[in-house]
Amino acid sequence: MSHRICCYTLFNITHTGVLNRSRPNEDNVSEWLRKRNTQCNFDTVLQAISLRSQPEVVKVPIRIEMQEADFVKFGFLYSKEDKISYYWKFEFEVQHASVFENGIIPLGALYNDCNGIPMILCEDQLTMLSNFLDTSSELKNIHFEVT
Known about the structure:
Layout: E1 3-9, H1 29-49, E2 56-65, E3 86-94, H2 108-114, E4 142-146
Antiparallel strand pairs: 1-3, 1-4, 2-3
């Protein structure tokens, strides 16, 4: 039996499929770099999840416009900015959700694994976002829910 988990993050983790690290011979290098960086962020989150499981991505990341109620998933220091703010969401399945337990909360080990992992700052993100995954109550920028 598999367990579905939703991941929410303030980092741009758009799945672009750009996996090549060599600079292309095309004119629009900045567009390639943006796509590569967001793909790197998605790959990084998947690698953190993969430390304890073999996730199967069910739904690729989508960008969602933040509403006031959405801030509750993240750190209490974040607030709505003058510009439109976004978060990203994707779903994955694992065979045993218990691998993420730490004895305190059901996904505690997953939060511990993600804390402090460097990320790449990209466009469409909150301006006060740090350059690493943070699971603290003040600056939490990644959230997981078993669905």
